[in-house]
Amino acid sequence: MEEPSLRKRREDEKSIQSNAAKTTNLQKEVGLLSGICIIVGTIIGSGIFISPKSVLANTESVGPCLIVWAACGILATLGALCFAELGTMITKSGGEYPYLMEAFGPIPAYLFSWTSLIVMKPSSFAIICLSFSEYVCAAFYLGCKPPQVVIKLLAAAAILLITTVNALSVRLGSYVQNIFTAAKLVIVAIIIISGLVFLAQGNTKNFQNSFEGVQTSVGAISLAFYNGLWAYDGWNQLNYITEELRNPYRNLPMAIVLGIPLVTVCYILMNIAYFTVMTPTELLQSQAVAVTFGDRVLYPASWVVPLFVAFSTIGAANGTCFTAGRLIYVAGREGHMLKVLSYISVRRLTPAPALIFYSIIAIIYIIPGDINSLVNYFSFAAWLFYGMTVLGLIVMRFTRKDLERPIKVPIFIPVVVILVSVFLVLAPIISKPAWEYLYCVLFILSGLIFYFLFVHYKFRWAERISSPVTKHLQMLMEVVPPEKDPE
Q1: Pairing of strands 344-345, 479-480
Q2: Cα dihedral angle (188, 194, 199, 204), rounded to 10 degrees?
């Protein structure tokens, strides 16, 4: 009779062989519904529930506040349409990375991956998980502030859980995203319907004289747009997983055209709902706007709001992890990161090493006290790269006429997005100069040192160190290089 251990080994070998037969590339597991859920689920995080007051604080009146939310939605849609052309023209995962590579060469692409992988993506992931942790802990520490150690441990556990889910299966990760997106749309619907009921009952006093005391300074308007567009951040997330989209020529633009306007309508109606029960002054004084709304409208069932906000944040964290792991994978495949980061799990057909690397950096960011300021100062860098990527679209209209373009947006759309990007990069620096912006630029440029040392010249001593590490990790994690780059 065969020993159980030997039988298990043979079953594992069969499993590996059957997966190898599928080819060791990322599988096309994401359909149109999952694509819409990734866009909606990643954009709607905790921001619209907790701090829509940042836009109101800069406009100082209800009318312009609602106009800014609508304008930000239109701008996000225009930016996403530009990315739809890029995504269907260059069907590689990794978001801005492959587009910058194709348009401007390896150095801008490397600087984008360097800034995104070391600071922007993992710190954002950490903040979302910390927000989730604070909401959950608050339910167990009524009347007092939860200990920081408990908040950080729960946030770290959330990062590990989300990473495990996404490393196990692409399909499981997209199912989880669909469930949490449905959950957050439930609370969005509850807030909107409650607000419309109050509006129908005649609670319109906060909308009277809604343009009184309007801020007309360029600095205030720019900061209002800056905060509004930050709430829409995530409109480009589907471009990070283009290789895993079924029929990307159809599903990528369809998901964008359906997903972002849906978010825009939700944001405007939620703000209207808030103003039906709170004056602008009360809204500005609220620590968490949705919770205040729930206390006034849904009592005694007001506990529903923090519960669903927790679902919303964990859904946004899952979407961020699902997409950011692909950027690390593509950068590793191009030789801009450790080669092992581009390897794919033989059993699961997921970029497991890239996801694990991403989660480790995110957990490191949880350790220090305050990382919000870090993200605030680096957020201008996000619009710098958005602008460069859309500029690349215009450049490739002339330099890469041979590329097939299933979608071709009118030229005025990328021009508008570039002008907005320039405005958003320069506005915070001009309106409120700070040394931190210079430090951010120096950090971005410091990536050139690593590029020339490890990518361009490829010193032998670095290869001697990385080669055995790669082999050991490959055996430990059962990962292999992807068979070929996607065309």
Answers
A1: antiparallel
A2: -80
Q: Which amino acid is at 286?
A: S
Helix or strand or coil: residue 402?
coil
Amino acid at 173: G
Predicted TM-score (pTM) of this structure: 0.81
Q: How far apart are CA 155 and CA 133, in angstroms?
A: 5
**Considering only CA atoms, which of 141, 112, 113, 138 is closest in space to residue 46?**
138
Q: Which residues of the chain have pLDDT under 70?
A: 1-29, 50-51, 142, 213, 215-216, 369-378, 462-463, 483-487
248's tokens: 């990307």
The gap between the terminal CA atoms of the chain, to the nearest Å, is: 49
Q: Do you find a cis peptide bond into 410, omega within 30 degrees of 0?
A: no
Q: Report DSSP state, residue 349.
A: -
Other C-beta atoms within 10 Å of 475: how many? 9
DSSP code of residue 237: G
d(CA 98, CA 87): 9
The helix/strand/coil state of 174 is helix
How far apart (Å, rounded) are the C-alpha atoms in residues 141 and 137?
6
DSSP structure string for 194-227 = HHHHHHHTT--GGGTTTTTT----HHHHHHHHHH
Nearest to 86 by CA among 442, 483, 409, 417: 409
DSSP-derived letter for residue 238 is: G
